[in-house]
């Protein structure tokens, strides 16, 4: 369970006592004896997601806590001259949404860098890089993304970038963030030549003559990125501020940073989150996952362990640092780096490493030991596991931790789950493991074209098997992986969960048989997410005693065609009873 600020706990307790008092008050009692109600939201269409009381038209809030749920006639007797009464004009209200896998600092930095629209052709990318180079000083690094091999027509080469950027080193990430594409100047600065060996867990793509093509996969990315200047603290803060506002505008009241240290060092990113929390400008509830990388020799990441062991010192009100991120494999795209139980279709030209079954980055014995250790410390573990072999390894490790430490430890989640063996689907529920699935990637898109080509049409029928995972009885949660996806709008994800088509509907689809209902999709973002973080008694539903985290919508998602769900807009985002976003 995430840590909760002690003063906040006292406020929740006081408000709970008040809630019982409200229920006991009668019309004849002296109003001075009634508990203080700060706000009443009336004339709303509340979908509470509370099975006992699924609908309501009014909610009373005291000190950030919901103290009563019902209708105006029932609640109006608890107001006084200082109570704010808000008429919602029959708009729909839902609990706040949770994004369980996001990279806010990276998203903010990407918006400031050389941004390439996903699905761009080679010519479009060259034109975009040319414009970015024109704005840069001579010799400055030009960093950005995102490119898709399927849209380019195959893996690119440095010559295409050299043609528009000969004097500035260029680094472009692909959509998955598991590959980069660089020009000759960047290769020169990084000192990468035909004689540079592939690092363990990484791949330097080469041409038929053995020369580096300019594409780096997985751990090999570090050979170049280590030469790129780190962003200053003010850049990190500006990037995070931009992302926080963007997420509030989409009704995201709670999120998990999936890999702390993705854009800078963990210490620098932790400092930015802590400062913004201390200043009160961090409105959302934030969970940080500390990155733990197993070395090629399967030895401990001592630097990360020092931070992990001191994790509690970084906790703040609305900020908890109780999660560890581990990468088990890569991605099942043209890179062939996701770890698969069955071989990929075809092979990668001029390469031997990982071309058939991908890359499993951690051996099972080392993984089991690490997860058992973190589990005993009360830390949840979030795995990057795209291939079915990696998913199996993650489940094995959780099972080992449960056997060693007992079943009552923190919840661990196997992230992405692009492919899950039918044999492994039912394994999660008995060991109290969570499946985290990746929204926005459930519709046809350039990256999914690459996945289809790499995996083949037969296995693609079960891609992102969300329906199977939900029906297995396991806890399933959603994580956008923004800015790997271009938008953090959860309503795009809700629609594609329900349709498995392009937003707005399309003749083509992606894993159509794995579609789920609208109610199931919304519960992934609310009830399920809160359960995973240990906050199901405080968040995820609109219910007496819960924290007042809610979103007001411009339309009723249950009364419109599924193909219009992506058009849903948030009018207000409310956290702890405070309106933290209001549409203009």
How is this structure best described in words?
The chain is α/β, with parallel strands linked by helices. Helix content is 30%, strand content 21%. The protein is built from 17 helices and 24 strands. It has an 8-stranded parallel beta sheet with strand order 8-15-16-17-18-19-20-21. It has a 6-stranded mixed beta sheet with strand order 3-2-7-22-23-24, with helices on one face. β9, α4 and β10 form a beta-alpha-beta unit. α3 packs across α9, α9 packs across α10 and α16 packs across α17. The longest helix is centred in the N-terminal third of the chain and has 19 residues. The radius of gyration is 25 Å and the shape is globular.
Keywords:
584 residues, alpha/beta, 17 helices, 30% helix
Secondary structure layout:
Elements: H1 6-24, E1 39-42, E2 45-47, E3 55-56, E4 58-62, E5 65-70, H2 72-75, E6 84-87, E7 92-95, E8 97-102, H3 104-112, E9 114-115, H4 122-135, E10 142-147, H5 149-152, H6 158-162, E11 170-174, E12 179-182, H7 184-190, E13 202-206, E14 212-218, H8 222-225, H9 233-249, E15 252-260, H10 266-278, E16 285-291, H11 302-309, E17 319-327, H12 364-376, E18 380-385, H13 388-405, E19 412-416, E20 433-437, H14 446-455, H15 466-471, E21 475-478, H16 490-499, H17 518-532, E22 550-553, E23 570-575, E24 578-582
Parallel strand pairs: 1-6, 2-7, 8-15, 9-10, 10-11, 15-16, 16-17, 17-18, 18-19, 19-20, 20-21
Antiparallel strand pairs: 1-4, 2-3, 4-5, 7-22, 11-12, 12-14, 13-14, 22-23, 23-24
């Amino acid at each position: 369970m995430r840590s909760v600020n002690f003063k906040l706990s006292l406020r929740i307790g006081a408000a709970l006592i008040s809630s019982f008092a409200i229920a006991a008050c009668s019309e004849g009692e002296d109003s001075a004896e009634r508990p203080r109600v700060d706000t009443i939201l009336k004339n709303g269409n509340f979908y509470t997601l509370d099975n006992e009381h699924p609908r309501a038209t009014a909610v009373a809030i005291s000190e950030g806590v919901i103290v009563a749920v019902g209708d105006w006639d029932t609640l109006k007797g608890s107001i006084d001259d200082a109570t704010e009464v808000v008429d919602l004009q029959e708009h729909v209200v839902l609990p706040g949404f949770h994004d369980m896998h996001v990279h806010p600092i990276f998203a903010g930095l990407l918006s400031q860098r050389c941004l390439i629209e996903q699905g761009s052709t080679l010519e479009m990318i060259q034109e975009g890089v040319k414009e970015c180079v024109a704005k840069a000083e001579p010799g400055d690094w030009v960093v950005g993304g995102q490119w898709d091999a399927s849209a380019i027509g195959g893996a690119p080469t440095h010559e295409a970038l050299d043609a528009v950027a000969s004097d500035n080193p260029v680094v472009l990430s692909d959509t998955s963030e598991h590959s980069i594409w660089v020009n000759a100047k960047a290769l020169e600065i990084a000192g990468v030549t035909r004689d540079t060996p592939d690092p363990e867990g990484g791949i330097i793509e080469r041409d038929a003559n053995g020369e580096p093509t300019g594409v780096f996969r997985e751990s090999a990315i570090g050979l170049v990125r280590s030469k790129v200047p780190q962003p200053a603290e003010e850049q990190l803060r500006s990037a995070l501020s931009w992302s926080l506002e963007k997420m509030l505008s989409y009704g995201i009241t709670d999120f998990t940073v999936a890999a702390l240290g993705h854009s800078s060092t963990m210490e620098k990113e932790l400092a930015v989150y802590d400062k913004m929390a201390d200043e009160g400008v961090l409105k959302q509830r934030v969970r940080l996952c500390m990155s733990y990388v197993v070395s090629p020799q399967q030895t401990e990441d001592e630097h990360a362990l020092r931070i992990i062991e001191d994790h509690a010192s970084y906790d703040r009100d609305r900020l908890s640092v109780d999660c560890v991120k581990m990468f088990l494999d890569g991605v099942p795209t043209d890179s062939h780096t996701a770890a698969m139980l069955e071989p990929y279709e075809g092979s990668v030209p001029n390469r031997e490493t990982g071309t058939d079954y991908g890359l499993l980055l951690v051996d099972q014995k080392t993984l089991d030991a690490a997860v058992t250790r973190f589990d005993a410390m009360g830390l949840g573990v979030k795995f990057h596991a795209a291939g079915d072999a990696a998913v199996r390894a993650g489940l094995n490790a959780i099972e080992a931790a449960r056997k060693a430490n007992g079943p009552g430890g923190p919840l661990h989640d196997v992230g992405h789950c692009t492919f899950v063996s039918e044999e492994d689907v039912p394994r999660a529920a008995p060991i109290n493991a969570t499946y985290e699935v990746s929204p926005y990637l459930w519709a046809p898109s350039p990256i999914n074209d690459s996945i289809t080509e790499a995996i083949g049409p037969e296995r693609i029928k079960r891609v992102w098997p969300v329906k199977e995972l939900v029906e297995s009885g396991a806890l399933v949660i959603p994580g956008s992986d923004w800015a790997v996806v271009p938008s953090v709008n959860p309503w795009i994800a809700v629609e594609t969960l329900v349709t498995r088509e392009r937003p707005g509907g399309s003749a083509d689809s992606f894993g159509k048989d794995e579609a789920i209902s609208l109610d199931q999709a919304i519960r992934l973002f609310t009830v399920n997410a809160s359960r995973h973080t240990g906050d199901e008694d405080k968040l995820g539903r609109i219910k007496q005693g819960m924290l007042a985290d809610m979103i007001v919508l411009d339309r009723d998602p249950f009364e419109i065609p599924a193909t219009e769900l992506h058009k849903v807009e948030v009018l207000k985002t409310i956290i702890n009873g405070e309106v933290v976003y209001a549409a203009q």
